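To: structure subgroup
Subject: Chain for Friday's discussion

All,

I'm putting the inputs and outputs inline so they're searchable in the archive.
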Amino acid sequence: MTDLLAVLCGFILLTSNGRVASFSVGCIPLITHDARERTRHYQRCHHCRHQIKNGRQRNVLVFESEVGEDGSIDELESAEASNESRTTISEVKASKREMMRFAAPALGIFLTNPLLSNIDNAFVGKTTGTAGLAALSPATICTDQILYLFSFLSRATTGLVSRAYGADSDGKNGNVDAAREAASAPLTVSLICGVILSILYAFLTPAMLSGMNVNPSLRRNAASYVYWRGAIAWAALAQACSLQVMLATRDAVTPLVIVAAAALLNIVGDALFCAWPFRWGCAGAAAATSLATLLSSGLMLVALKRKQLLSSLRLPKRKDLTSLLDFTGPLLAITVTRLIGFVAMQKRAMTLGVEPLAAYQLCINVIMFFLLFGEPLSQLSQTKLPPLVDAQDGDAIMANLKSILILGLGASIGVGACSFAAVRFGSFLFTSDAAVQAVAKAAAPGVFYAVSTAIMAVTVDGAMLASRDFSFMLFMGLTTSILQLYTLNWCNSITTIFGTFTFRLASYTVGVIARVKLGKGEIGRAVQKKRANRAMQTATS
């Protein structure tokens, strides 16, 4: 029967290991699961050999290297096995080099803000003394931490725009129109929230500082810092959203140039407003940061317009709000749980005295600076994984995750060591107070553990955001937040305060890795499904 069909064949429909391939040759259907019979057909059918040899056969599961000069074909089993390995390796294999091309400039972007915060600390500490440095701690709670509360908008921007852009593995051939449309809602909402924040800062700053039980001797300096930073909250949120649009479309160089220009202005402003000739202290540092933020946000919008990514400002439609709320609702809750931990740490430090509080401010800024070495790795996951998760491509997901985790592990050790050295040997750069320096040096090991753990946590957090595994993130956030709040009651030094932070991040990292290994969540199920399919193919071969 097979020979008869081989003679009369019109086209072949092959089914093998769950894959279907159709062949448009002059043959009638030959349907068989016997690989040897299919191979014999090709060897006997002159028309099939001619089509394959001359490259006119489409969708064929036999490669050119397996077709002899006479048109003969090797065993089909080896051809199919070769097809599996070649497509997997050539199309899916993650390139660490390509990742580093994105991560290196992205790292510069994310390091700029904490670097400038440390420069602010140095100017304030040197020009106004320990009291000014201590005043920055409650001031940054009211500014940086509240702005961090709205980071769910920038994270939602990354997810929405990267999915809409849909670039290939090289970051090319993306849909600019779709990306621009997706960015409209988060950019508009960011500006609205920023304007409301600026108004609240103008009227409620004294009440915030009073409600935090800030030492009365520190309130004047703290308030001057908050007023300046609060006035441009709208620009800060717009800048964060614009930055994420460019990163989601795989452009890390343009925002790096913009942020570098703003950083230069900030440093010059610190010198003018803090040191000479104005000598404004905390207010001078805030003024320099505010001017730099206005410059960078303006340049970001210009760059988006030039790249045809600047969306029009309009009230979001119901569909836009639904898409945005799919991200912002859970992300807001997750961000709140994390913010609670940061605020609780700073409030606990405020009970230890002025010198420990100044040392805490010094150390926490060093931690935040070095922690952001993991942010580019998180961005890699957020920009590369969403299309793979949507396609349930387990091999591609694992290839990217392995590459990113290897980079994260190396960064955690190296960057953690740098943070230890910065606190242990560089505290004199931030303060001339010997007592503050001594407290900071004693906390150096705690800083190392906190930074090393934080980089790994930020790295795996990007994968959870890419897969939109918000329920797990919220569960872990609530659980670890409650544990941290409880243990902070027993902390009597800044070292033990940082210990609660380390424990929280380590628990989250272990939980994420275990979730993927157990086949839970979108990523875990995709990886588990691929493994199950491969095991089934091995068993049936």
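Points worth raising on Friday:
The radius of gyration is 29 Å.
The longest helix spans residues 176-211.

D.
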